[in-house]
Amino acid sequence: MTNDGMTNDEGRKGGGPASEVRLPFAIGDSPLIRHSPPRSLLLSKRASRWRRLAEFSGRAVLFLVTCSSAIAVLFIFYFILRDALPFFRIRGIWELLTGVAWYPSGRPPAFGALAIFYGSGIVTLGAILVAVPLGVAAAVCLSDVLPFGLRQWVKPVIEILAAIPSVAYGFFALVVFAPALQESGGTMLVTATWVVGAPLALLAAVVLGEALATRFPAPLARANRWLARLALGSLALYGVSRLAAALGALTISSGTNALNVSVILGIMALPTVVSVSEDALQAVGRELREGSYALGATRAETMLRVIVPAASSGICAAVILGVMRAIGETMVVWMASGNAAQIPKPWYDVLQPVRTLTATIAGDMGEADQVTGSARFHVLFALALALLTISFACNLLSELAVRRAQQKMGQQ
Asked: I need a surface site. Which of 194, 226, 289, 324 has the fewest CB within 10 A?
């Protein structure tokens, strides 16, 4: 008989409270009571099966969404390779890679794309020379030199450059920069040399002066530091002046050339390099900086020997992203490169017109015979396959560089 007047049998049949079950044994005078879980938490086999099915379906959907970009890239590879293979069967690959004559509509046609590959390479190299030093230096300045309040104003202004459409850059390069480069190119080159080269030369002189001063005894370190800075700074400024004099004597016959495109592409890639590099430098943290200062390192030594090596993987990723922006750009090189399928003489002359892979594909696709599937049509897909392969190789190199940097930091 329980406290409410019911027997144990009546309670177990459902007439009594369902929250406790009396066990058939007891410890001393107090019986063991086990509280059973509420019935709402007990799932039937059918409900449990539906729950597992829902979880599996959700994971499958998320996996497909994650793999969608990789699947899209594979489909792009497949369709480009499918239309590029007929050209390799008809003409082979050596004519495309080693020939210098590009006359796809000639009689007979010629499909030598070596000059086009060269144009893409020299334009990309010029963009790298413009974007990488300025971008990394600006990122270091934003991260460790400028005050926080000023950095919050400067960085959004730099990132606005990434929002400008490429056709606007191309229009500026064709209408504004090309005539100015043709009419007063020597003066512009001299000004650019002093504006860009002089600060970089002085910065290099200061850094080298710091490094050389540490090799002398402590009493002489301060005096030798200033003497080293003065000597190296004078030598650097002399080199900049000689370079400016040589560039000022040049004459530019056409403003639509490789230099025009390189400068504009470097400006277009600058926001990517600055933003990603600055984020990588900020991710280093204050601990390494304060530890370096505590060990007696100067500000320049801390930035060059501690912060920049620690953020090398992020800086490498920023450089690769900037390179990819320069390689894949179409409108600027189509409008301002001159579109001349030639290798300049001498080969390093960036003041002559060139032609790139992207401009060739965009310019010739409308004139290619898509109905009959001629060699002129399929060679454009061969160029697209080469461009896609170069991009894929750059991505692999960036991944390898990032992994090596991470492994090196982990070992240290």
From this structure: 226
